[in-house]
Amino acid sequence: MLAETVCSAVAVAGLGIAAITAYRKRFLAATRIAAYALVPLGLVMTGVIDWLASSAFSLTAWIGFGLLGVAWLLFSSTRTIERRRAGRRETTGEEGRTAVAPAAPGPSLGAAPRGAAPRPQAKAGKAAEDDFSDIEAILKKHGI
Question: Strand, helix or coil at 108?
């Protein structure tokens, strides 16, 4: 008797939370909460809690099985809707957007254009001097 009362109270509380969630326009979450709330009530009504009370032919047991079926339908319908929405987001590109840094104002100094010939190798002193002149140009460009 106590188990039935507790499960009924849990079901009523869960349905109340589902109603509040639906009021906040979160219908999928509210439907899922309602499905969870119906499970204990369905278990009580099917007689799983009190299996020895010959519940196989009682009307209450069959109503409980019906409630379990409704809970299963609610679960599966919310999952189907979520999958459809997720698939729609992937095709439209709504999900997974990331911030991208703006493009650089000019070409990078380290990369040569694809069609350009490689620079000839110069003496080691001249190569080091070229590197410093590139650095000086960058620093002057930025006002340093």
Answer: coil
- Measuring CA to CA, which residue among 45, 52, 51 is closest to residue 67? 45
On whether the CB atoms of residues 77 and 31 are closer than 8 A, the answer is yes
Report how far apart, in Å, the C-alpha atoms of 80 and of each of 25, 77, 86, 87 are: 19, 5, 10, 11
Give this prediction's pTM. Answer: 0.42
Cβ contact 38:60 at 8 Å:
no
Structure confidence at residue 52 (pLDDT): 47
The predicted-structure confidence for 86-117, as pLDDT tens digits, reads as follows: 877 666 655 555 555 555 555 556 555 565 55
- Three-state secondary structure string covering 14-53: HHHHHHHHHHCCCHHHHHHHHHHHHHHHHHHHHCCCCCCC
pLDDT at 41: 87
CB atoms within 10 A of CB 117: 7
